[in-house]
Give the backbone structure.
Amino acid sequence: MKNILVTGGAGFIGSNFINYILAKRDDYNIVILDKLTYAGNLENLIASEAKKNYHFIKGDISNKELVNYLFTKFDIKYVINFAAESHVDRSILGSEVFFKSNVLGTNILLEAARKFSVKKFLQVSTDEVYGSLDSDGIFTEDTPLHPNSPYAASKASADMMALAFHHTYGIPVVITRCSNNYGPYQFPEKLIPLMIINSLKGKKLPVYGDGMNVRDWVYVIDHNAAVETVFENGKSGEVYNVGANTEMPNIKIVKLILSELGKSEDMIEFVKDRLGHDRRYAIDSTKIENELGWSPKFNFEEAMSQTIKWFLTNKAWWERIITGEYQNYYETQYG
Ligand code: NAD
Ligand code: TDX
C-alpha cells in the first residue's frame, strides 16, 4: 500500500485524478489536502468519498505544522502536488496568494518530503512556464523557462525549487508540464466551461483580443494517466512534457461549442485583451512517449463533445457553483 498525499484534490484536475485512480487501484491510500478555495469543490469527489482508501483533510499546503502532522499521522511516503492557484486572469488582478500557495506551499511540502524521506514527489506543473511561442516552434523539456504571467512565474519558481531539492538533497522529484486541460468538473472561469455555460444561459461569449491565441488541448484523463505513469515510472530529477498535439485558436473552440449547442455566432463578443497574453503554446511530448510509453488516448472532437454533454447533463453541478451552494458541502459532511 502506498500512502500518498494528494494536494489540491478537490480541484478540476486533482478530483478527476482521484476518481480515476481510486476506480482502478486499491494499492494507493489517498490522503487529500485541499484548502477548499473558491476552486475546490468536494462535490467533485462524491464518487470516491465512501472508499476506505480515501481521506480528506481541509487545509493549506503552506501550513507547515499541519503538513508535518499529516506526514506523521498517515506515514506519508509519496506526494502528488496538484494544489495551486491556477487562473491566469486572477494572477493579473493580484499575485500574492499565487506566491503563497504555489511557491511557499510547494517549498513547505518539499521540506516535509526531505524530513520524512519520501520515495517520490510529483510536482504537477504547466507548459506556461516556457512562455509564449510565435507561429512556429514547440516546447521541449530543454526549452528555457520564460514565464510571462504572475501565475506562470509562480509555477516556474516551484519547479526550480523542486529541482533544487533533487539536486541538493537527492529528493526523488519528478515534474510534469502539461498543456491546457478540458473535461468534467472544470471550474467555470476557464475558457471551455465558461463558453459552454454562457451559451446555455444565453449570455455573451467574451473572446479576448482577436481570438487567435493558440492553446494545445489535452483531455483531463489523458493528463491524469500521464501523472500516474510519471508517478510510477518517472526518473528522479526529470521533467516530462504532456500534450496531445491539438493546437487550436480560441475562436475555433468557441465556434465549435456554439455549433455543437446549436447557437448563433452572434453570441461572440470580442473584448479587451488579457494583459501580457501569451500568443501560442505547443508542447512536444516525445520524451514521455518514448521513455515511459504514455500516449494520449482521447480524440479531441469526441472528448470535447463528451465534455459539452457532461455540462448539459450536470447543470445542477455548475448551478450550485454559480449560487455558491457548493461551498456548503464540506460543512454537511465534516462540519
Ligand atoms: P483548480 O484551480 O481547479 O484546483 C486547484 C485546487 O487546489 C483547488 O481544489 C484548491 O482548493 C486547491 N488549493 C489552492 N491553493 C491551495 C493551498 N494553498 N493549499 C491546499 N489546496 C489549495 O486547478 P486545476 O486546473 O485542477 O490545476 C491543478 C494543477 O495542475 C495546478 O497545479 C495547475 O497549475 C496545473 N495545471 C493545470 C492545467 C489546466 O489546464 N487547468 C494545465 C497544466 C497544469
Ligand atoms: O473569457 C475568456 N476569454 C478568452 O478569450 C477566458 C477565460 C479565456 N480566454 C482565452 C485566454 C487564453 O488564450 O482563452 C485561452 C485559455 O484561457 P484559460 O482557460 O484562462 O487558460 P490559460 O490562460 O491558457 O491557462 C490554462 O492552461 C494552463 C490554465 O488556466 C492553467 O492553470 C494551466 O497551467
